[in-house]
Amino acid sequence: MTKTTDLHIQIDPEIKSNAEHLFSTFGITISEAVNMFLHQSVFVGGLPFELRQPRYNAETENAIQEARDMISGKIRGKVYVDLSDFYNDLESEYDFISRHLERVERYIKQAAWKNFKRMVKESAHENHLLEGDIFTRQDSGRELLNFTDGADEL
Asked: CA 34 → CA 10, 19, 93, distances in Å?
């Protein structure tokens, strides 16, 4: 039998419980998981995963810094004397966010539609349909898939 040694670590009880549950789904104990982690660390000569700081765009970085400065007292937040000024600023922010959400929603729909079309074409290919059996057309501004000649083969 291989010699072993004890390793005592301090860990948040909730993290430990969640990890134990996760590892049990793989059929291993937390001790076995830690052993695997240590073996892999030795094998790769470092941590077996990449450590990195989250990267944000310049606008987000500036907002984070501004929030830190406000918390530390370096800068003061905007003070409103009149409630209508506050509501005007709030409405302006709402309009700005709404415009960006609309762009994101359009992008997501386009990406989902593109992925759907790819999956249909792959499925048709797997079912030995001809490339011409599936085509797209514009109809009232919406793209539609039409199944022609090979539809009865589905």
From this structure: 13, 11, 48
Number of domains in the chain: 2
In terms of DSSP bridges, do strands 134-139 and 142-147 run parallel, antiparallel, or are they unpaired? antiparallel
Contact 27, 16 (CB under 8 A): no
| Beta bridge pairs of residue 142 | 139
User: How confident is the model over 101-126, as pLDDT tens digits?
Assistant: 888 888 898 888 888 888 877 777 66
Q: What range defines the domain where residue 40 resides? A: 1-52
Calculate helix-pair angle for 30-44, 13-25, nearest 10 degrees. 90
CB-based burial label for 113 (10 Å; 0-12, 13-18, 19+): middle
In a domain, 72, yes or no: no
DSSP codes of every residue in 95-134:
HHHHHHHHHHHHHHHHHHHHHHHHHHHHHHHHTT--GGGE
Q: Which residues of 16-39 are buried (b: 16+ CB within 10 A; e: fewer)?
A: eeeeeeebeeeeeebeeeeeeeee
Question: Could you tell me if residue 57 is inside a domain?
Answer: no
Note the pTM of the prediction, 2 decimals.
Answer: 0.37
33 DSSP assignment = H
